[in-house]
Every structure is written in structure tokens, then in C-alpha cells.
Amino acid sequence: MIEIIPVSSARERRAFVDLPWRLYKDDPNWIPPLRMDMMNTLNPKHNALLRLGPNCFFLARKDGQVVGRIGCGVDNLLNKAKGKNLGYITLFESIQDYEVAEALFDAAMNFLRSHGVETATGPQSPSNGDDYRGLLVDGFDGPPALLASYNPPWYQDYFEKYGFEKQFDRLGFWFDLDEIPEKLVRGAEIAQKRYKFTVRPVNLDNLESDILAIKHVVDKATPTEWPDMISPSLEEVRAEVKKLIPIAEPELVFIAEAEDGEPIGLSITLPDYNQIIKRMNGKIFPLGWLKFLYLKKKVNTARLFALMVIPEYHRKGVSAALYKYTMDAAKQRGYIGGDASSIHEFNLKIYNDALGSGGKAYRRFRVYQYKL
User: Fold this and answer.
1) C-alpha gyration radius of the chain
2) What is the pTM of this model?
3) Distance in angstroms (rounded) separating the CA atoms of residues 236 and 57
4) Of 9, 16, 75, 117, which sits 20 to 30 A from 224 (CA to CA)?
């Protein structure tokens, strides 16, 4: 008998966070998340998404043991911007038993339906960021990059058996830094001379100015027709930047500027700290942070989180230059390669730029929808 309960107590929140350790204990590719970060994700005080509308997290129990989990909710800010009644699901996990998955989906759909949702989408990020967005459906042959989704192959069967349909895919690209295309190097140099733009690393000594530059690019580069994204507020950009400062390497974050100084593009890359996080087993204290600092210099791959160019500078080599500067900087740091995850399949401009810059599509993440 399967019992579904809403998460309401500290003990239930711990059970929600701890479940993957049991589900993935024999999977060498799984990367344990940091427990403290995941606990904060379930807390509206630390997770702004949970303050944007009704939400609920559920546990599934069978024979007295926790065997599954799911989160769901409504982003009223997104709905207002898109003029729709959408809901999301997130952080789904289940033992290999479809009845457990079905019971969890039922609970989430009933919750969303009770709040007027017409279409559920997901898996979405639990924090409205780039983390855990989409279900991994292709590319199970290695560990995930930092904050990228990872799940067993049978989750796809469970989603589709329940009635979820593909909304769109997001592609992960791999870049081998021993294979930087010569045409990329030449093309970036020609583009900078022809269109008179420059590329520079972020300046931490003038951080507020660069936060405004990032906000400017994000506002102009985020297409209004994208179904799952709206431009963040200045406060959200400022908070995200300040959250990344302790783990970011300024040499891997670039801003492109036009001749008149207008910010026209940006790229944000972090070291792929999953190489370290795997060895921390979800714990920062008492020794996890020391282990992180000790192993930090041993990281040899990177994760490109964002690359955006304003529409006026599409097809003018700005994205190629950002890729080129990022790869040069990563190679100088001794990195051997990097992941760029993830690019919407319908974002053909950036998709083709990734291919032209030497990227190889090697992972596929699917966002589903379910009509209520």
C-alpha cells in the first residue's frame, strides 16, 4: 500500500532530502548534492520561487519506508508575464516501481488542479535557476556537470506512461579544449575588428556596474516567446551574482561591449565543482569546506552556465568571441574540457553557435507538459 504525505515537519524535510542517497547508492555516476543547499531549497526564506505562489512537496511511503518524492507549485510571476495558468513539478525521485511514480504524479496534479493550473510542466528547477531543469533522457554514460540533471533511464518511461508529453528538449554540449577550431579563432578576431566590440572579464572591483551590465544583456537577450523564462529583476540578478562570487573564477566570466560601451553579450562559466562535491558526500561541515578548498585547484573541467547576446548583435560573431575567450581562459587554467548545459533545442542561433565553436551535443534533457 502506497501512502502519499505532504512534507510539513523537519523530519519529513530531512527524509525528502536524504532519499537519493538510498536510491543511487550503487550508481557510480550520481553526484550527491550538498544537503544544506537542498534543505534551503525547501525553505521559502532561502528560495524565492516558493514565495511566488502555492507549492507543496510530497513523500511516498511503502511498507513504512520512504520510496519516492516530488515537488510542485505555481509561479505567479511567470504566469502573469505569459498570460497562462501554468504549474511546475520538480525534484521527482522514485524507486523502480511505476505505482509509486503514479501516486506521486497524482498528488502533484491534484494539488496543481486545486489551484487553477491548466498545464503542468517539468521537471523544472526547484529554485527558478538552471539547476535540475529537465529530465535526462540521453547521455547516461558519465557523471553530470555541476547542477545538471541526472536520473535513471526508466524515469522517462514513467513520465510518458502517465501521460506527460514532450514540451521541448534542452541540449548539453561538450567542448574538448584540445580541439579549439581554428576557424573560431580567426572568425572571432575578424568579427571584433569589423563590428568594433571588445570582450573583457568581469571586474569585481566595479561589481555593481557589471551587475547592471549583466541585467542589461539579460533583459534584451531573453526572448519573450520562450515558454519557461522571463527576465529576472535587478534584485534577483544582484542576489545571484553575489551568491556565485565565493565559487566563481572572475577570469571565466566575460562581458562583451560595443564601441560605445553598451554591454552586448555575456558568458558565465564556473569550474565543474562536481569533481569535488562527489567526494564531500553532501557535507560541508565539519571537514567538507576544508576538503573543497584543498581540492579546488585539482578541478580540470568547466561548466558554461549562460551565454547571451542582444538581438542587435546576432550573427556578428559576438557569441563566437565569447566562446573563444572562455576556452582560452579555461585552457590557460589547465582545464581539458567543459560542459555547456543546457541550450533550448528551439534556440537555433545559440545551438548552431555551439556546434560551430567545436561543441558536441552529448546530453539531452526533456521538459514535459501535462494538460490538466
Assistant:
1) 21
2) 0.92
3) 24
4) 117
Give the pLDDT of residue 207: 87
Query: Which alpha helices (H) appear in 196-339, and where do they start and end?
Result: 207-221, 234-244, 274-280, 288-295, 318-332
CA distance 275 to 195: 39
d(CA 35, CA 38): 5
Output the pLDDT for position 289: 64
Q: What are phi and psi of 113, to 5 degrees?
A: -60, -40
With cell 579549439, the residue in question is: 180
| Distance from C-alpha of 246 to C-alpha of 5, rounded to nearest angstrom | 37
The confidence score (pLDDT) of residue 342 equals 81
| Complete domains list, the chain, with CATH | 2-163 (3.40.630.30), 175-364 (3.40.630.30)
Dump pLDDT digits (tens) for 233-248. Answer: 888 788 778 777 777 8
> Cis omega (within 30 of 0) on the bond before 6?
no
Tell the burial category of 217 from Cβ atoms under 10 Å away from its Cβ (0-12, 13-18, 19+): buried
- Grid cell, residue 333, equals 587554467
The three cell numbers of residue 72 are 510542485
The residues of the chain scoring below 50 in pLDDT are: none
